[in-house]
Design a protein that fits this description.
The chain is mostly helical. The protein contains 19 helices and 4 strands. A hairpin with a 3-residue loop joins strand 1 and strand 2. Helix 1 packs across helix 3, helix 5 runs antiparallel to helix 10 and helix 15 runs antiparallel to helix 16.
Length: about 475
Amino acid sequence: MDHTTELQQAVYNVLLTQIQFGTYQFKENLPAMDVASKQFLVSLDTVRAAYRRLKQEGYISLSKNVGAIVQVKYQEPQTIAHIRSYFAPRRSALIDLSESMVPLFGGAQRIGLKHAHPEILDDMEQLATTDAPAPTAMLHHLKQQYAPLGNGLLMRLVWQIYMFYQAPFFSLPAEMRRLQGSTEYVPQVVRYCRRQDWAALHDITSRFQEALSSALCCFLREDIPAQSPGEEIAFCWSSYRKPSQLRYSLAMELLIEINNGLYPAGTLLPTLEQLAKIKNVSISTVRRALALLSSIGAIHATPKIGTRIVPFDQVSQNCDFSLPTLQQRLLDTIQGLQFLALSCKDVSRVTLASLTPSEMQQWKKRLCEISKQQRYDVTSYSIIKLITKFSPYQTIRQVYTELLRQFFWAHAFRNMYDQPDTIRNVYKPSMECFIECLDQQDIARFSSRLETLMLHELRSGVAYLLQLGVAGAKDILIPDEHDD
């Protein structure tokens, strides 16, 4: 989970807020760097960079003998002002995020806990009996419950949400009183897992997230003044935000444009110089992005002619599946599919329940158009895309938009989805079911069928990657259709 600059900034931000919130006060020690490294689940170098920045800005002193000591002294009015300055501009984003947690992560959380090894349950139980700070305990609990899924993409999202939401809120000890029974939550979770009482586990995990959301909303309502319009800070997530990974963002953008027909099969892409100007990036970045697209079979460069778009039916034979970069992008695709399979039932149910009759008709019209075109292979993609536009929660819309983008790396094995038997036995019946459910407003059946379809795609994708020898594919947990 170590991504240098981005992680350094996140660790720095949390430590700074904890100093400003009074978690660590004047002349008190911050955790030793090696301890903080374990607490934040990042490398020692990442923590060291965050501590050095805090020292440079005068918040702490650093020495080998006594470690990191807070050098700023805040009076109570200043602490209150710091707390308000953090939470006020994030008010809307935090409320939306907290209310999105159950539909977005409830399924992944329960499946992860259901498949947790006894050693993980022992670790959870042991952590609950220690005096670990609440933010530290929360992060390690998150790591423990999602670890069985084998999904690095999901863990990056969980970590980023933690840094934006749970870490700052759990750094307010006074607010923990609003979470009645929170100290018993982890022991109860462990107890239900060991008893295999999955109904009780479902109930307690949902109630805890709802209680956390309620506590946050109560705190914001009572203690944080409303912010002026235009000053909101939104929660953002992107798998490829860092400058060193700009080539992935550009490659994905070009791939989306290819799939949308902006650059049809058989035509030439603009030159390196033209693309650099169009996309406002360096020629070097364009060259590296095109190399990635070439590796997944989307394009083929010919000297003195240019870079041509490869027809869909020739994509797979044009791939070099031995390339580590391509294998990692394919693994991103499958990790995104797993998260969608674990969340789509709850997310689609919440989304469909929020639709107006007119919006429900828009869904039906879109799926009928796809059915008429006999593009059954894009059924799941089309529904996820509708969710990105119609979900009542901004967090879900953003996360699903990012997961949808991961679909495009499957360009390299798109023929996996359009086999005649698969179309006839899986996709076409699913499309007919979805349209019928929308007609009858049968939200429960629609959501269950979407989950079934996504699980099918997950199983197929993992099997394909295992055939290709992609490292990490064997770690992806595939839940049973009725695992929840």
